[in-house]
Amino acid sequence: MSGKPNTRVDRYKQIILDNKFLSIIIIGGIFIITLGAFFDGLTKVVNFWQFFSGSGISKESQSVTRISHSDAISKLKDEQLDIKSLYIDQRVDNCQKYVILDKNLYVGLYYTSFMIGGVNKEDIKIAARSENAEPLSISVECFLNPTLLIYEDDIIVVEDVLLKTPYIELEYKGHFYSISVDAGMYRVSDAMYILFSMDEIELPTMILSEYGELPVKK
Fold it and tell me: Looking at the structure, do residues 98 and 42 belong to the same domain, yes or no?
């Protein structure tokens, strides 16, 4: 056999050995890659140690982090106390029952009064006034179905919806709500309707009465 390389690997080795400049580039590249991997591993080890020992985090930065977390919690609490609009200018015709909240209550116009009823009406605490701060009469009476002319379930009524603009506050399941009511009339039929808006509020501004404290109309 002659001295010529027999395999492709041998030929590549011979080319590298014959070309000194190429050999230097390859060896230098291998050295740089190895050195970079070494320092990268060293940095990860240092960061890992600082994380567990806390030496890499100053007291000042720790204080800022605690304050930011506290501010976030405070902001969340403030958002939970903000007034939340639940219903805005909902139109309800006379003796129509409009279901609200958890669908266990309804509101509506009962002839000349604002009514609140439903299976959980006895869980309500309520107060009402006019726009001029006059107290409005609140009572419990039996709902008369205008179509069937039969009495149905008891309802809470706030009187003088047509003559005054009621502002109502109530408590239900630990939450407080306000209801604003405006009365209107259809031009063609002269039938009455109301527009009501309901918001969740932080605290009531009036003294609320329990369902059992309300007078009952026979």
Answer: no
Residues 101 and 193 in one domain: yes
Predicted confidence (pLDDT) per residue in 72-105, tens digit: 444 444 444 445 678 888 999 999 999 999 999 9
The domain in which residue 168 lies consists of 83-213
β-bridge mates for residue 175, sequence order:
172
C-alpha radius of gyration, the chain, whole number: 39
Contact 170, 205 (CB under 8 A): no
Write down the pLDDT at residue 32: 74
Overall number of domains in the chain: 2
Dihedral sign (CA 104, 166, 155, 184): negative
Distance CA 168, CA 198 (A): 9
Model confidence pTM above 0.70: no
Instruction: Give every CB contact of residue 86 below 8 A, 6+ residues apart in sequence.
Output: 100, 101, 177, 198, 199, 200
Per-residue H/E/C for 167-184: EEEEEECCEEEEEEEEEE
Please determine, for residue 30, whether its predicted confidence score (pLDDT) is greater than 50. yes
Q: Do 171 and 185 belong to one domain?
A: yes
pLDDT in tens, 174-204: 999 999 999 888 877 778 899 999 999 999 9
DSSP code of 200?
E
The SS3 assignment for 22 reads helix
Q: Which region holds residue 202: left if phi is over 0, alpha if psi is between -120 and 50, else beta?
A: alpha
